[in-house]
């Protein structure tokens, strides 16, 4: 398989040249050139597929309904634009020579372009408030790149500012969750356990969102968060979080959709506890327990697609939200393993033992 193209190779393509570096990272999994041999059809006239095509090398023949033919050659000014972008297609496209093409999901591209434009508008508005620096960090996060602009505006209106000194515990392990926070200034640490069992899970910087796992899973806080510096936080209540952020960020897929994604290079992530995983897990699934995911995510391949599962679907929803913050493309198995028919569940959760490990750079190896 060809290696993904880098943004510098595609900067001449319109409107891709308007995307930010973060948006390029969001599209990375789709930036793989595809071959089309001489004589093969790319698409027929009246085709409705929501795919944006760019010609990278070779030559295409475009034929419209009246039989008028146009040659499109890679490297020409016309090839900087999508090939016959109108739906349904106005042309039939045939390869005159061996070609290399780029295909991008049109809906995803439209979402990225819309967000990029709205991001600039929001920053222009917010630059007048004096708080633009932290908001720019927040708006540039992979998390909000997946949230509709209208939701972002509403979220910013509903945030409530909280100022606390260094050493303050913002939330405690085991407490009920009624809100999440964004870190506007300062630093914080996430700790699980107490005494000799205490474990540092993560350090949070400006723009980080935390406390969302209890909201997504409808469960007690699974860690404590303590401020390392005098800090300013922005609080978002549970109902606002679920309405404005969870719905657009946590993508859920059926078992059939997950299987198709696995066939295209997707990877199962089992986010249950190690004991649950060792009892039975999906073939070649990586075990990344939810409470360790922030630490272990650095071992994942940034260009990969990850399919998260747990028993009920709640922990996997939290995992997808967290991975989205970190810039990964992830999906949750809808309603978890418990929603699968017994035969299907037993067929999927068929391996036992310690299973597989992720190594730096996304390399996967058997651990036994």
TrEMBL record:
<dbReference type="InterPro" id="IPR000595">
    <property type="entry name" value="cNMP-bd_dom"/>
</dbReference>
<feature type="domain" description="Rhodanese">
    <location>
        <begin position="262"/>
        <end position="349"/>
    </location>
</feature>
<dbReference type="InterPro" id="IPR018490">
    <property type="entry name" value="cNMP-bd_dom_sf"/>
</dbReference>
<dbReference type="InterPro" id="IPR001763">
    <property type="entry name" value="Rhodanese-like_dom"/>
</dbReference>
<feature type="domain" description="Cyclic nucleotide-binding">
    <location>
        <begin position="143"/>
        <end position="245"/>
    </location>
</feature>
<dbReference type="InterPro" id="IPR036873">
    <property type="entry name" value="Rhodanese-like_dom_sf"/>
</dbReference>
<dbReference type="Pfam" id="PF00581">
    <property type="entry name" value="Rhodanese"/>
</dbReference>
<dbReference type="InterPro" id="IPR050397">
    <property type="entry name" value="Env_Response_Regulators"/>
</dbReference>
<dbReference type="InterPro" id="IPR014710">
    <property type="entry name" value="RmlC-like_jellyroll"/>
</dbReference>
<dbReference type="Pfam" id="PF00027">
    <property type="entry name" value="cNMP_binding"/>
</dbReference>
<protein>
    <submittedName>
        <fullName>Cyclic nucleotide-binding domain-containing protein</fullName>
    </submittedName>
</protein>
């Amino acid at each position: 398989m060809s290696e993904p193209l880098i943004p510098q190779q595609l900067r001449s393509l319109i409107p891709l040249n308007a995307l930010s570096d973060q948006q390029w990272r969001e599209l990375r999994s789709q930036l793989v050139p595809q071959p089309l041999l001489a004589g093969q059809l790319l698409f027929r006239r009246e085709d409705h597929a929501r795919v944006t095509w760019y010609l990278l090398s070779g030559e295409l023949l475009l034929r419209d309904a009246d039989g008028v033919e146009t040659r499109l050659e890679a490297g020409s000014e016309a090839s900087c634009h999508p090939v016959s972008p109108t739906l349904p297609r106005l042309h039939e496209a045939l390869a005159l020579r061996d070609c290399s093409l780029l295909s991008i999901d049109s809906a995803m591209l439209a979402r990225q372009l819309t967000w990029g434009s709205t991001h600039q508008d929001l920053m222009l508005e917010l630059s007048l408030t004096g708080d633009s620096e932290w908001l720019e960090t927040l708006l540039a996060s992979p998390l909000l790149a997946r949230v509709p602009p209208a939701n972002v505006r509403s979220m910013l209106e509903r945030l409530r500012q909280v100022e606390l000194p260094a050493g303050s515990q913002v939330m405690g392990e085991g407490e009920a969750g009624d809100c999440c926070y964004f870190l506007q200034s300062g630093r914080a640490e996430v700790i699980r356990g107490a005494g000799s069992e205490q474990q540092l899970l993560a350090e949070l910087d400006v723009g980080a969102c935390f406390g969302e796992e209890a909201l997504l899973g409808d469960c007690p806080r699974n860690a404590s968060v303590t401020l390392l510096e005098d800090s300013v936080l922005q609080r978002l209540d549970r109902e606002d979080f679920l309405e404005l952020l969870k719905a657009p960020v946590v993508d859920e897929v059926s078992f059939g959709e997950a299987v198709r994604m696995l066939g295209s290079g997707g990877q199962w992530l089992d986010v249950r506890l190690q004991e649950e995983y060792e009892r039975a897990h999906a073939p070649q699934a990586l075990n990344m327990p939810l409470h360790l995911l922030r630490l272990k995510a650095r071992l994942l391949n940034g260009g990969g697609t990850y399919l998260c599962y747990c028993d009920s679907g709640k922990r996997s929803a939290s995992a997808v939200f967290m991975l989205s913050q970190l810039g990964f493309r992830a999906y949750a198995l809808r309603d978890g393993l418990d929603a699968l028919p017994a035969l299907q569940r037993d067929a999927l959760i068929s391996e036992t033992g310690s299973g597989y490990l992720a190594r730096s750079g996304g390399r996967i190896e058997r651990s036994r």
